Amino acid sequence: MSIADLRSGPGPVPCRWRAPVRSGARGVPRLLPLVLWPLVDVVALTAVVLVLGVPVLPAALYVVAVLLAVGVDGGHRARICLRVGDQVPRLVLDAAVPAALLLPWTGAGWLVPAGAGGLVLARLAGVAGLRAAHRRGRLVEVVLVVGAGATGVRISRALLEHPEFGLRPLLLADEPVPAAVPVPGRPRQLAELVARYRATRVVLCAADTEADLVGIVRAARPLPAAVHLVPALPELGVAVPQRLLDEVWGIPLVPLRRWNHTAAAALVKRAFDVVLAGALLVVLAPLLLVLAAVVRLGGGGAALFRQRRVTGPGRSATVVKLRTVPRGTAQGWAVRPADTTPLGSWLRGTHFDELPQLGNVLRGEMSVVGPRPERPCYAERFAREVPRYRDRHRVRGGMTGWAQVHGLHGDTSIPERAEFDNRYIENWTPWLDVVVVARTVGIVLATAMGGDQE
């Protein structure tokens, strides 16, 4: 079949798609992925421990331990491709290890193979039931396929011809599409269309559209839908764990990170900021007071320097630093070494001048780790001149950041800073913040002792 055939087809494709109807039942597909596989696992594991006669307490511990292991391992993720064979090794391991650890307590030697076998059999039964429901038009979700080239049309036609996937496709394109798939709008309307059709998945075919998908997806976050990306070279294998990959009729799909753009992630990051900033402020308060007194007695003016900075999406705040240049000294974008006092030069080199910003962090105006906040006039200028610079303002500005620990501070490349900052935002995890803080401490100590910053 040629590409032209894919776009137009040899004839009309049997299209059973109907526009989603808003009703109380519409919430079922969105809730189902959250409870289906945990519920299947609980039923299977409970049946196993009851048949083996495992005592109540160790049985409960076993069920909870396996559920946690499977969940952390990604086994409860709602997949498009429902092949159980891809999941068997991880399911067996997740069920067998807790059983082996509890063996001295339970004395049930059969729990190791029985738990693993029960889990796999339950998944096979669950998949069979789900596929049967999909073929009958039950529990069907809407997927938005962004890009109407050969790949996008192929994915859409495959979903129409194989109802067992349980997905009704809608194509988003900037031009007419000669295919039996509805086109309700354009890629730039992604957020609006996800809400309108209550889509639970989005598939991005970057090679099939000239739209700025990076900007569109970033502007639409956090989307209430899982977002998948078709690799640029789908014929080649990617070094991504199989349990994280998905597939539509031979076309691999790589999931984009989602949790780090949620309210739960923001709450975790805020808790990290409050705990760390509060502890540092208590521990470093004597040092901060001494430094402020030395700066004040040095005759350079008030000990603290205040400046308005852009600190987040549509937000700005007065950022506080220890003064490193005499009052009245004109300041451009970067402070010239000749304008700083000897003490100011040392403070800037060690970044001790930024310790008062711990107060900004506690007030919620900044984060410990994040893109360094910039003055509004320069932020506007860089946003006009540097691609993706504005995207770095999606999160709170930070006292230190991924760009800073790579030496990108002071008079360094703004495009590279924006690239590092946006990479940090896209790949944020609590552990990444720990890494940045640890590297910052190492750089500060090295500088304070007269060593290199890297």
UniProtKB/TrEMBL annotation:
Endpoints of the signal sequence: none
Keywords of this entry: Membrane, Transmembrane, Transmembrane helix
Domain Bacterial sugar transferase positions: 269-445
Source organism superkingdom: Bacteria
TM helices/strands, residue ranges: 59-76, 111-130, 274-299
UniProt similarity note: Belongs to the bacterial sugar transferase family.
UniProt protein name: Bacterial sugar transferase domain-containing protein
